[in-house]
Write a structure and sequence with these properties.
The relative contact order is 0.20. By secondary structure, the protein is mainly alpha-helical. Helices cover 69% and strands 0% of the residues. Mean pLDDT is 84; it is low at 479-485. It is globular. The longest helix has 37 residues, at 34-70. The protein has one domain (14-463): Amino acid/polyamine transporter I, CATH 1.20.1740.10. It has helices spanning 14-23, 28-31, 34-70, 76-84, 87-116, 125-142, 144-173, 197-212, 217-221, 228-257, 277-284, 290-323, 340-359, 361-370, 374-395, 412-426, 430-435, 438-445, 447-462, 479-484. It has 20 helices and no strands. It is a multi-pass membrane protein. GO terms for molecular function: amino acid transmembrane transporter activity. InterPro entries: AA-permease/SLC12A_dom (IPR004841), Amino_acid_permease_CS (IPR004840), APC_YAT (IPR050524).
Length: 485
């Protein structure tokens, strides 16, 4: 008799899915690191880089949306790579993504302590980190709706902050706030609008890519969305326009008010709220409490990122157990539909990684570096999986009318994503290659050989192969039957 398959419960509403996808890509990358982007590439270079990366991410999301509405499953990237490319790739993608987010949770709870030190500099850092991890674990063990509701409100705080920032920023540019009009003079200041030419723009691609990472969470939420056929496409279209609007206008305001030569723009640490470009703009407008307010918003962003990371890594581990890539224990769910064993395992790894920051700082830095490029590797896997899915779908005699959602401009979209992901991955630290700094190269690119080792280890052990297009299973999921189980 076949073993009964355990399913996570669907409980994410449409508003949850939209806000999770939006909140996933609005964080310290925008609130802090955007200043460094303007400094390195100038106002024009930063805007070009973020818009191009935003367009690429949109194509990526439509690719993911086409697959996620056809087959909505938790831990989608691993499943799609397994079904549409090669089981070895699914194995490598799954462990790569789980590792990425498990380490990110550790990084974020460490950052919580740094952010809290702004208000409480004399209290031990571990207290805040331990408290943050406990809160995040509790949210994720309760129910998927608890996670969705928490993310909705934390993401809403970030969105409201951006609206206020844009309003204050434009009033400052016009001289209504801050005493004098800055106008657009900083766009033609010295070497502006384009600084350092093409290399400057490419360097910002990396920053922009990290800023946008998290949008792919919409693919994982599809497995627990109440109506993925409607909520996923809606989230993708809403998120694209909001991302372009928020990032483009926010960077425009920063570049107009703060000259690219300002040393204040060099800050790229989430802990240094005093040199967040948002804080600087608020101060220029005469808002005295700017630093405290932005510190609270950044704290919300960091906790939101850790919360999303815990959810994403837990669902990926659950999915891998379902595929046979991880122990079966991690594929079991409790009465509330939560993969509790997978959640506990992820929490333990995050906690152990966090502890290495005290007992072995070098080990901690290596782990953080190893997770650095895994998000781009996941994007590469999504694009490749979709390219092969659509080709197999058409080759097997299907028509696009059979799909619930169509990706935009196929095959341009996935091909552009594949090319840009390769550019970003290998352009991550060009300076290290130029200087022959092999230790720096090893630190930066360690995730690439790790994924290659995972891929070939599984391939040679299980004798897998690239699945021929006419053998790929492109059949859609029957959600009605699944929900009855």
């Amino acid at each position: 008799m076949a073993e009964k398959k355990e399913h996570v419960k669907r409980g994410l509403k449409s508003r949850h899915v939209s806000m999770i996808a939006l909140g996933g890509c609005i964080g310290t990358g925008l609130f802090v690191a955007s200043g460094a982007a303007v400094h390195n590439a100038g106002p024009g270079g930063a805007l070009v880089a973020y818009v191009l990366m935003g367009i690429m991410v949109y194509f990526l999301m439509t690719s993911l949306g086409e697959m996620a509405t056809n087959l909505p499953v938790s831990g989608s990237f691993s499943t799609y790579a397994t079904k549409y490319v090669d089981p070895a790739m699914g194995f490598a993608m799954g462990w790569n993504y789980w590792f990425n987010w498990a380490i990110t949770v550790a990084v974020d709870i460490s950052t919580v302590a740094l952010v809290m030190a702004f208000w409480f500099p004399h209290l031990p850092a571990w207290i805040w980190s331990a408290g943050a991890l406990a809160i995040i674990f509790t949210i994720n063990i309760l129910a998927v709706s608890a996670f969705g509701e928490t993310e909705f409100w934390m993401s809403l705080i970030k969105v409201i902050t951006i609206f206020i920032f844009l309003g204050v920023g434009f009033l400052t540019i016009l001289g209504i706030m801050g005493g004098h009009a800055t106008g657009l003079s900083n766009f033609t200041y010295k070497q502006a609008p384009f600084v350092n030419g093409i290399p400057g723009i490419i360097s910002v691609f990396v920053v922009a890519g990290f800023s946008f990472q998290g949008t792919e969470l919409v693919g994982i939420t599809a497995g627990e969305a109440d109506d993925p056929h409607k909520s996923v496409p809606k989230a993708i279209h809403e998120v694209f326009w909001r991302i372009i609007l928020f990032y483009f206008l926010a960077i425009f305001v920063i570049a107009a008010i703060i000259p690219y030569t300002s040393p204040d723009l060099l800050g790229s640490s989430a802990s240094d709220v005093a040199i967040s470009p948002f804080t600087i703009v608020f101060k220029r407008a005469g808002l005295a409490a700017a630093a405290s307010v932005m510190n609270a918003v950044i704290l919300t962003s960091v906790i939101s990122s850790a919360n999303s990371g815990m959810y994403a890594s837990t669902r990926m581990l659950y999915s891998m157990a379902d595929e046979g890539y991880a122990p079966k224990l991690f594929g079991k769910v409790n009465k509330r539909g939560i993969p509790a064993a997978a959640l506990l395992a992820t929490t333990v790894v995050a906690l152990l990684t966090f502890l290495t920051s005290f007992v072995g700082p070098k080990i901690y830095l290596w782990l953080v570096a190893a997770s650095g490029l895994t998000g781009f590797i996941a994007w590469f896997g999504i694009a490749l999986s979709h390219y092969r899915f659509r080709r197999a779908f058409i080759k097997q005699g299907h028509t696009l009318d059979e799909l619930e959602y169509h990706a935009t401009l196929f095959p341009v979209g996935p091909i552009m994503c594949l090319i840009l992901c390769i550019v970003v991955i290998f352009g991550q630290d060009i300076g290290a290659f130029a200087n022959g700094d092999w230790f720096e190269i090893a630190i930066t690119y360690i995730s690439v050989p790790l994924v290659i080792i995972l891929f070939f280890a599984y391939k040679f052990t299980h004798h897998t192969h690239l699945i021929p297009l006419d053998e790929i299973d492109v059949s859609p999921a029957n959600l009605e039957n699944e929900n009855k189980k």
